[in-house]
Amino acid sequence: MTTTTWQLDGDRLTIANAADSWIFERPTPVDVSRIVGVTWVVQSVQVGENVVSIPDAVEATLLFGANNVYRVETGCGYVDGAWGTNGSVIGLRDDGRLLGECSTERAEFDQLLAETLSGRIEAVAEDDGTRLVIRSLR
Known about the structure:
Elements: E1 5-9, E2 12-16, E3 21-25, E4 39-41, E5 44-47, E6 50-53, E7 61-64, E8 69-73, E9 78-86, E10 89-93, H1 104-116, E11 119-126, E12 131-136
Antiparallel strand pairs: 1-2, 2-3, 4-7, 5-6, 7-8, 8-9, 9-10, 10-11, 11-12
């Protein structure tokens, strides 16, 4: 029987057994100035352990404006709100409602996206800054 141990030291997690060890480091949150003014294309939304893919023919985007206003657009709907930061946490203020008219199939995804981006999030840049991973902190 192999005993596996783990140790968490700040942002570093080490998992080890008698033969191997693995070290995982949490990515550093992105400097907010790097995400402002860039239109980010949403590729998927993770809800719990499940990843929800973007429906065919949907291009959802997220834009953080320099004036602390953000917009999520999905082609048939949108959410506007205000954003601000507290350290690495980005706070989003809106009512979580999707505005616009969408088909039933599209409306379900659009509402999921709007709800995921409501409240507090953390943004982490990956792939040399070309990919932005946003995690809901709710």
